[in-house]
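Take a record:
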Amino acid sequence: MSTTETEHGEREAQLVDLAAFQDPETLLRLGELSRTAVQRTENGVADVFTGTVRLDKVDEEEAEAGTFEQLDEEELDEDERASLGLRPIIPETFLDAGVWRQRRAVWLNSAAFHATRSPVYLWRFIRTSAIGARVGARDAWSYLFATEYGELADKVRRAKAGAEHIADLRADRRKEAKARRREPVTVYALTGCTSYAAAVIALGETWGLILTAPALIPLFGLLYVLGHRELARRAPDGTFAFLDSTAAADHDGPVTDERITNALRDIKLLTAEQTIKPVGLATRDDLGNTTVAFKTPAGLVCKAIKNKAEAFAGALGLSLERIDLTQGETPNDVILWVAATVPFSEDAPVSPLVDADRWSIWDGVPFGSNRKGLRKTLQLLWSSMLFGGAQGYGKTSAMRVPAAAGALDPQCRMLLADFKGGADWEELENIAHRVIIGADPASVDEFIELVDELIEEMDTRFAKIRRMPKAERPDMRLTPAMAEAHGMPVLMFLIDEIQEAFGVVLARKDGLKEFAALVEKLARLIRRGRACGLIIVAAAQRPSAKSVPTDFRDVILKRYSVHTVDDTSSDMILGDGQAKRGHTAAGLGRIGVGILAEEAGSEKLQVDLITPQEFEVICARGRALRIEAGTLTGYAASGLLTVSGILAQMRAAFDEAGVEELGSTDIARLLHQQDPAADWGQRDGESDKQWSSRVGARLGREIEEALDGSGRSLDRVKVRTLAGTEGRGFRRTDLTLVLGA
């Protein structure tokens, strides 16, 4: 660019083509740079030859008038801030209401804690101040009279250095002590002490001792400081705590990031310089269990902590059962769960089936709770179940839970094979369609025949399902609608102590062949029968290759084992390799607690409690439901009594009273209301005792006559009468068991 002067003498700019002064190589390079620069702009793509941008023709019409509003830039949310590596301006702990609630609770707890210990603190203060007074007087005396020279004189005397040295030390001591007493600091201190004492005495004489007490605060404060210093000097760690700590014991205190870091350092997974990074805030559930999420430093992953879980729990001051480690989104993300108490240390909860009026097996079986307190519901329709373990640890009690669920479903047909031959399942006989009791050869043959019948029933059901329209059978599985419409109720086959049946078969001449055939039939029944509504619930006491064959066990998808003597026995029930994966029933040693192995994994459970007495009531309820629904069949229906006479009258009396227990005289009064001419009422001149004895004997006699030949009995028991007193009478459940209604 050059300039020229105008007519007024001003300089005027003039454009000069600098490209004319450039060599061809420089021009080519400038052209490439210009095209590259234009291509990177928002205006378009540069022309290949000249680098000029070709823009569409812009509409030159004037825009209508309007209002333009400048939009503010949106603030970054938490995720965007984290992705940009920005730290939060205000920590979460200052904004979280739960954290402030915890802080208030801690403050109130600390205030109450220290208030209750104030007498102890007062005594501790007085004792420390007394020590301070003694130590202060001792140190002041030692300084003013140079007592350290006396110690030197003793050393010289013991060394027998000569009397002249001792005399010199005594002279030096007198000289040093005199000099110290004349020091300005000493004079000022003594003057201050005497002035303070005189002022306190004057205040006491003028205002009294009570108003003088505040003036003594500096004195006691000084004495406490001297005593505190002396006690700290005596302590091995050089510290002295006046107040008791409000923190709970380490194993009961909160699991903080500092505590976790220290534990990981103790087991050599972290160095002294490394720490964990907490993720969010710790949470606590309704049971008091705590969940903490944290991120480990590079080089330490969740799997490494899991491998040393027992040592990690010990470093936290907890048992292994009280912690659980799971991996988060990345291997460095760890979620630690800590139980408030030792899992399963309390009594097992009562099963909800105890109070249920009825149940549907399609809704699953409420089975128990895991160590985190989470409820476990089993879906047995598609898997069947195997129970095992040592005798006396709750195997039969656990097996009672699915049996109770089936009993309370009137559309569930119960089949029972009790090879133990005891009384554990006698209540179930009142609702079971088929019953096999004992391990004699005839019972085992009947069991094999029943298995064949079930296979035939299974094939028949599949044939029915195949003939149905596809709209009714979307996945070739039985549904509640199909079961009701086509008469295919759910079949629950309970087999207790199945190893007894296998033992009888193996003892026969062709035992191995029959045993293999029976196992194959059972496996086929379990494998295919689950789709058509067949549930097998089996139990074995002595796990072995013959008592629980793998071909039989492996097709059962749900297995539960109580205490066993070793890992081998546990694996015979739960499956091969379960012990190596950390799931073993060996050494559990607690009744009602076992290991549940499922398709999704294994875990320790505490089974809900159903006592034999409660199971009896459940079975009576199930029988009544089946009679009402018309589904009581087979063995249970063959023993039904004709409800008439005294038994029908007693049932009507219970219905009218609406209670579960009636005394003999209560029943007599109700029977008198039904039929005044039947002579159940109290006669003129008859005492209460005579009337009670008469109607009690008559009830017993007529009940015995009504039950004659049935093999059943209805005895009087201790009950609570309508008057609220204890007496002899009858229970509705006993009458229901006898009548079957």
In short: The radius of gyration is 46 Å. Residues 44-58 have pLDDT under 50 and may be disordered. Residues 257-338 form a domain with the Alpha-Beta Plaits fold (CATH 3.30.70).
